[in-house]
């Protein structure tokens, strides 16, 4: 059985391969690539004789998998699998496992780093000090007492709610399927958008959630509200968000995800919109989360080899 790790996973190579040996023993020959490539021909060349392939958020489409006749399993070191051609995997009978849960803490903690950056104007404060200025014009806001809205009450959304309550926020939640979360007032999407001071997105990218937050939804938000997106870029209409910010219909936004993986085009509309804190898709990227992700990757492979697959998509 040949296992090919097609891109770096954010864990030192020696530690990663030791973990693989610990989990799999001698049941798989392991090939590790320490560079990330997206060219389909190169990817296919790397994976063509793999029985099992490991990727993170590397696009893995039909044109690559068609050239991998032995491929039986794909262990995705990520929560979402929208970058994988799932229809083709189902057609071919290729089992796909994800790493749900590895970054719950990492993502939810960054939400509050972003919220505090917007509310306390941390980036502007840094620039002021470096320019020899004082705090004039840099009065901030407190999270305590604000209405904090969470769209998508899965594991990350629920963890975010716990942290919001710790900051003294009143938490409102919206979920597409009915859920009851202790200490969270569940409501409909329009009510959440119209009432909340801070809105944080935590939904997967699906046909139903693409463009979930567009011009109409943004128009419901209060002019002094802020939007935080650590979910998926296409969940939000970036042009509509940029317009709302430029026209003063929204106070600020913090964005970690975009329509494509960073580096993004320098003419992206959010890069010229005011009061935007932008990060390069780092919400999941902590040392602790990346190691836990690697553990789940190899647990998934071990489960498959044992005939007990887990985290199946």
From TrEMBL:
Superkingdom to which the source organism belongs: Bacteria
Protein name: Hydroxyacid dehydrogenase
Family indicated by similarity: Belongs to the D-isomer specific 2-hydroxyacid dehydrogenase family.
Membrane-spanning residues: none
Pfam families per the UniProt record, alphabetical: 2-Hacid_dh, 2-Hacid_dh_C
Domain D-isomer specific 2-hydroxyacid dehydrogenase NAD-binding as annotated: residue spans: 112-283
Family annotation (SUPFAM superfamilies): Formate/glycerate dehydrogenase catalytic domain-like, NAD(P)-binding Rossmann-fold domains
MF term (GO), any: oxidoreductase activity, acting on the CH-OH group of donors, NAD or NADP as acceptor
Keywords: NAD, Oxidoreductase
UniProt domain D-isomer specific 2-hydroxyacid dehydrogenase catalytic: residue ranges: 15-310
PROSITE patterns: D_2_HYDROXYACID_DH_2 (PS00670), D_2_HYDROXYACID_DH_3 (PS00671)
Xref: InterPro entries: D-iso_2-hydroxyacid_DH_PdxB, D-isomer_2_OHA_DH_cat_dom, D-isomer_DH_CS, D-isomer_DH_NAD-bd, NAD(P)-bd_dom_sf
């Amino acid at each position: 059985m040949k296992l090919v790790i097609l891109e770096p996973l954010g864990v030192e190579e020696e530690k990663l391969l030791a973990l693989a040996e610990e989990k799999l023993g001698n049941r798989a020959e392991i090939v590790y690539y320490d560079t990330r490539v997206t060219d389909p021909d190169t990817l296919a060349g790397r994976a063509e004789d793999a029985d099992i392939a490991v990727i993170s958020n590397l696009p893995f489409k039909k044109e690559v998998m068609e050239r991998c006749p032995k491929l039986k399993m794909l262990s995705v070191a990520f929560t979402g699998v929208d970058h994988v051609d799932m229809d083709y995997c189902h057609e071919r009978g290729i089992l796909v496992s994800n790493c749900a849960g590895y970054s719950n803490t990492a993502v939810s903690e960054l939400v509050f780093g972003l919220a505090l950056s917007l509310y306390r104007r941390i980036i502007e404060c840094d620039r002021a000090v470096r320019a020899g200025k004082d705090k004039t014009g840099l009065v901030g806001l407190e999270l305590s007492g604000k209405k904090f809205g969470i769209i998508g009450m899965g594991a990350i959304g629920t963890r975010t709610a716990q942290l919001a309550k710790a900051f003294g926020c009143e938490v409102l939640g919206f979920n597409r399927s009915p859920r009851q979360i202790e200490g969270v007032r569940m409501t409909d999407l329009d009510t959440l958008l119209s009432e909340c001071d801070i809105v944080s997105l935590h939904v997967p990218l699906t046909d139903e959630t693409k463009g979930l937050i567009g011009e109409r939804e943004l128009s419901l938000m209060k002019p002094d509200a802020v939007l935080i997106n650590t979910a998926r870029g296409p969940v939000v209409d970036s042009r509509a968000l940029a317009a709302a910010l430029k026209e003063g219909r929204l106070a600020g936004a913090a964005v970690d995800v975009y329509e494509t993986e960073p580096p993004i085009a320098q003419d992206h509309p959010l890069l010229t919109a005011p009061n935007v804190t932008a990060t390069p898709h780092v919400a999941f990227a902590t040392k602790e989360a990346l190691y836990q992700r690697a553990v789940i990757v190899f647990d998934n492979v071990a489960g498959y080899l044992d005939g007990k697959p887990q985290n199946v998509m």
